[in-house]
Amino acid sequence: RKEVEQDPGPFNVPEGATVAFNCTYSNSASQSFFWYRQDCRKEPKLLMSVYSSGNEDGRFTAQLNRASQYISLLIRDSKLSDSATYLCVVNRGTDSWGKLQFGAGTQVVVTP
Amino acid sequence: DTAVSQTPKYLVTQMGNDKSIKCEQNLGHDTMYWYKQDSKKFLKIMFSYNNKELIINETVPNRFSPKSPDKAHLNLHINSLELGDSAVYFCASSQDISSYEQYFGPGTRLTVT
C-alpha cells in the first residue's frame, strides 16, 4: 500500500462549482499534513496546512480525519486559475525531520 | 527575486555521462533538499542537508552525490547516468530542520538518452 494515496482525476469542474477530493495515508504516526499545489511543468507550492480541527483559507477548506486516516480538500466557487494538480503531503512521523511523503496528486480542471 | 533557483533548467545527456545540477536559495533557510519527480509524478526525497550537514539520505544509488559548500547552496552530482535517471529534479529549502513548509525551485528536467 502506498504511504499516501490520491485519486489522480482529472476532476472536471465547471467554473463556480465546488469540488472536493480526499487523500488517504498509511502511517498512523504521521503528525503533520499539507496540501501543495503544482501547476503543469512547475514546482510544487504550499497551499495550506491541515489542522486537526479543520481549517479554511478563503475558498479552500481542508479537513483531517485521524480515525480513518484521510485528509480532504474542498474548493468552493472554482476559478479557472484553480486548475492544477493538488498534492497531498504527509510527514513520516515524529522522528522524521523534514521527511515529507508526497502523493501523486489529484488533477483538477476548471472549465468555463 | 527568485527564492530558490536551480541550473540548468533542462539537461539532455547520454548514458554514462556525469552531470551536475546546482541549487541556491536566498531565503536564509538552514535546510535544503533534493527531490526526484518521475514520470508517474511521485515526488520522492533523495537528500536533505541542514547547515551543510547531511541529515537525510534515502536509498539513492551512490552515483548520486550531493554537496553543500554553504547553507545557501546544495548541488547534486550524478555519475554514470542511466536511462532511469530521467526525471525532474527539484531542490527545496525550509527554515530549519523542524519546518515542514518547503519552498521549491523551478526544477531541472533531466533526459538521459
How would you portray this structure in words?
The complex is a heterodimer of chains A (112) and B (113). Chain A is mainly β. Chain A contains no helices and 11 strands. In chain A, the strands form 2 sheets. In chain A, strands 2, 4, 5, 9, 10 and 11 form a 6-stranded mixed β-sheet that branches. In chain A, strands 1-3-8-7-6 form a 5-stranded antiparallel β-sheet, with no helix packed on it. Chain A is globular and about 40 Å long. With 113 residues, chain B is mainly β. Helices cover 0% and strands 56% of the residues of chain B. In chain B, a hairpin with a 2-residue loop joins β7 (64-70) and β8 (73-78). The model of chain B has no long low-confidence stretch (mean pLDDT 93). The interface between A and B is medium-sized, with 18 and 25 residues.
Descriptive keywords:
heterodimer, A: about 110 residues, six-stranded mixed β-sheet, five-stranded antiparallel β-sheet, 11 strands, about 0% helix, B: mainly beta, seven-stranded mixed β-sheet, four-stranded antiparallel β-sheet
Give a brief rundown of this model.
The complex is a heterodimer of chains A (112) and B (113). Chain A has 112 residues and is mainly β.
How do the strands and helices of this protein lay out in sequence?
The complex is a heterodimer of chains A (112) and B (113).
Chain A lengths: L3 E3 L4 E4 L4 E7 L7 E6 L5 E7 L4 E3 L2 E6 L4 E6 L8 E8 L8 E3 L3 E6 L1
Parallel strand pairs in A: 2-11
Antiparallel strand pairs in A: 1-3, 3-8, 4-5, 4-9, 6-7, 7-8, 9-10, 9-11
Chain B lengths: L3 E4 L2 E4 L5 E7 L5 E7 L5 E8 L2 E5 L6 E7 L2 E6 L8 E8 L8 E2 L3 E5 L1
Parallel strand pairs in B: 2-11
Antiparallel strand pairs in B: 1-3, 3-8, 4-5, 4-9, 5-6, 7-8, 9-10, 9-11
Structural class of chain B: mainly beta
Instruction: Work out the largest interface and the residue count of each chain.
Output: A-B, 18 and 25 residues
**How many strands, which pairing sense, and closed or not: the largest β-sheet of chain A?**
6 strands, mixed
Describe the largest sheet of chain B: 7 strands, mixed
User: Element order, helices and strands of chain A?
Assistant: EEEEEEEEEEE
Strand content of chain A: over 45%
Structural class of chain A: mainly beta
β-sheet strand percentage of chain B: over 45%
Kindly provide the radius of gyration of chain A, computed on alpha-carbon positions and rounded to a whole number of angstroms: 14 Å
Q: How does the overall form of chain B come out from the CA principal axes? A: globular
Question: What is the overall shape of chain A?
Answer: globular
Helical proportion of chain A, percent range: under 10%
Give the helix tally of chain A.
0
